[in-house]
Amino acid sequence: xxxxxxxxxxxxxxxxxxxxxxxxxxxxxxxxxxxxxxxxxxxxxxxxxxxxxxxxxxxxxxxxxxxxxxxxxxxxxxxxxxxxxxxxxxxxxxxxxxxxxxxxxxxxxxxxxxxxxxxxxxxxxxxxxxxxxxxxxxxxxxxxxxxxxxxxxxxxxxxxxxxxxxxxxxxxxxxxxxxxxxxxxxxxxxxxxxxxxxxxxxxxxxxxxxxxxxxxxxxxxxxxxxxxxxxxxxxxxxxxxxxxxxxxxxxxxxxxxxxxxxxxxxxxxxxxxxxxxxxxxxxxxxxxxxxxxxxxxxxxxxxxxxxxxxxxxxxxxxxxxxxxxxxxxxxxxxxxxxxxxxxxxxxxxxxxxxxxxxxxxxxxxxxxxxxxxxxxxxxxxxxxxxxxxxxxxxxxxxxxxxxxxxxxxxxxxxxxxxxxxxxxxxxxxxxxxxxxxxxxxxxxxxxxxxxxxxxxxxxxxxxxxxxxxxxxxxxxxxxxxxxxxxxxxxxxxxxxxxxxxxxxxxxxxxxxxxxxxxxxxxxxxxxxxxxxxxxxxxxxxxxxxxxxxxxxxxxxxxxxxxxxxxxxxxxxxxxxxxxxxxxxxxxxxxxxxxxxxxxxxxxxxxxxxxxxxxxxxxxxxxxxxxxxxxxxxxxxxxxxxxxxxxxxxxxxxxxxxxxxxxxxxxxxxxxxxxxxxxxxxxxxxxxxxxxxxxxxxxxxxxxxxxxxxxxxxxxxxxxxxxxxxxxxxxxxxxxxxxxxxxxxxxxxxxxxxxxxxxxxxxxxxxxxxxxxxxxxxxxxxxxxxxxxxxxxxxxxx
Length: 797
Description:
Elements: H1 2-30, H2 34-58, H3 65-97, H4 101-131, H5 138-169, H6 172-196, H7 208-211, H8 219-247, H9 251-278, H10 282-307, H11 321-354, H12 361-412, E1 414-416, E2 422-424, H13 426-445, H14 451-456, H15 460-463, E3 469-475, E4 480-485, E5 491-495, E6 498-502, H16 505-520, E7 527-531, H17 537-543, E8 550-555, H18 559-567, E9 581-585, H19 588-594, E10 599-604, H20 620-628, E11 630-641, H21 647-660, E12 665-671, E13 674-683, E14 689-690, H22 691-698, H23 704-712, H24 718-722, E15 725-728, H25 748-753, H26 762-770, E16 780-781, H27 784-794
Helix pairs in contact: 1-2, 1-3, 1-4, 1-5, 1-6, 2-4, 2-12, 3-4, 3-6, 4-12, 5-9, 5-11, 8-9, 8-10, 8-11, 8-12, 9-11, 10-11, 10-12, 10-13, 11-12, 12-13, 16-17, 16-23
């Protein structure tokens, strides 16, 4: 038995590596929106549920459990290889037939099912398969809790290994082959053990049909373990969302939260397995677990809104990412561990509560595991796609406490008599009244999310003395957004726990530079795509160009256009209500993959590259995809931030863009004379920029709105705008020599950026970049006076 626990450690490690790799690969195809990821998660867990249920129907009890387990592990490894090499081909097929709207959602679900069901069916069957190695008694099924705990411990290892090494240092192929090697090693050990240990079927085939029926009177246990799964995955969604504000929404944060959650499940499963051997009434013990889960959920709610945001921690003081991670894992464990331990203990206690002698252990484990997984699927989907956007995280956490309370009532109030009859007794009713009173008290204790946390995230303790007026806060499907007003009247748009856009001069300068360069450079920008709405300033700058007849904004969060149309209309030229502007609520990558439209210009202003999922909009493959959607003479522009980043991440962004556009141009936006951020410009058919022609256009009455917009940010002419030239193609080759290219197979940028999002090195990064700047002899055309002005303004040092 102890050797089998080690095998389950390996199995769990491989499974989590696969899960992270497959989610990363699938988001490149079906998108990074909550709906897309909900479909992926639902399919993944649904396959495991079906596998746990149907193993006993297709594999007889006379088969050696270790041999069956080993065969399943080997088959999972084969599936891992097939998915790695087959998914790009399948992704191309999906792209060719994908459509928008609800039919498109069905296509995503079907695609994910075809890809994920085979391996997840096998994964779900591993625990029921090995369950036949034990007897269906409380002492026997306690071993199953240890197996589950070992599997979860392996999952913690796989989560950390994938998130902090395999994918951050290598790529999805390397990570996949590591997982495959683990699968084959586990399979080999399983086959070896099956040869060394004979097996006697614990259930006679003649009575198998009767023995595999669910014991009468056990429905409260199944309902409770289902509610437990629902509350657990629902809570993980809420906790991830709120902890991401507190410690930053990086890929490392997601790995830490998942690892803390899984660690709690593993600890709890081991504790619950010991308890299942000794407690006289495992059903009541399961009920008390749900009671204390209510308390754990209330504790987490307090930690997330009333404690952690106020810890006196200044992220800028950290001298290295390792120290930040140490603090972050403490915050995750502080929040997650109490409830996660109790959820982990619930599974072996539920097994012990329904176990009967001569029952098929595979059927027993499969049915309990399936009930728990169905609840988990419902919890994650309902919370992520409905409850948070409907009633907010405060209301959602209250609902989760009520769920746990109902689970406690189901197993503490009714009493199971002989023959399976469930009855009510006075003692149970008294316990039920106690549970209800405590639940009401705990529900009322859940506090609101602080507005400053939504606005400034991990920097909230530093900002608490500022006179910020949070004039709006809303929780949407994908993210939580806020709008604040400073005493001087400056408006800030907040998303992902930071200022994403504002009416500050340096931000307005960048946003309008990005928008106006997008339409001034193409010969005829009739049709333009804007990636990311934000405060709408970039989109607004695009919209006022008289040559733009059709403009599409791809925005992942439905709440954003409504918010910015209310608060930023003055700054964004009321772009959301412009009749020539169409808003598509979708992940921008998925939108471009599935549309057959072409554009004269595309501009991209997505979330920070350290935000998990954002790096998919900066890969070499994405830029090549965008190029295919450009009309002849088309232009692509993208904003690259230098603040809250490090030089390696900036090099990755620029170096990757330059691979797709070797003659790309960099325009700099400085603040107080130092670097702040830059705009990259890529031309499908590189041509010199006729500065005089653009200036002549700006001097006409129909271009007066653009000329006025530029003057508001300090550019009184086209000459001033193009004097911000910072670099071009060949100039930056020495600086970019060690740039790590961001590709679909590695998403290197999100790992590099996640190590520097607490840094403010923008001045140094920009200075190192422009060290290679010289006047671009063939980039600009115009009169001798114009070229002399630009040569003087740009210099060459």
